Known about the structure:
The chain contains one helix and eight strands; from the N terminus they run αββββββββ. It is mainly β. The protein has a single domain (about 1-140), classed as Immunoglobulin-like (Sandwich), CATH 2.60.40. Keywords: Signal.
Amino acid sequence: MKLYLLILSLSWSGLIWAADKDQALTIVAEQVDGKHCIKEIAAPANDNCKQADGSRDKCDGIKNCVCGKADKHIEWQSADITDYTVYFYAQSPFKDNCKLTSNNRGKLKCRIKGDAEGSYDYGVKVPGCADFDPRIIVKQN
């Protein structure tokens, strides 16, 4: 009986930890007037939003939305777009030392502040393209 309870508790704790992963988002590009612009931002396979019933928690029904946790990373990556900047309309969920500009390989990675919580609307600027408008939702435990 004790072994059964131990296995059961470990499997439940694994489900809890599964929703606390760093998130690597893929920027999907499309050609617009000869330039690579953002078409969408795809959620990762280990999506923190994903619930047991298949819904996406607070991101359900919201395109280009990601769920993050305090002290975890969110990374944007793109094979086609190497020059982009992320900006927030109000406050940022990221630590102050995060430079919100991609590197020359199309990647940007930032750590969420420990006290961040709530919805953060932001834009992604690619030179020569219309700004893209996704969302980050940070959940505290």
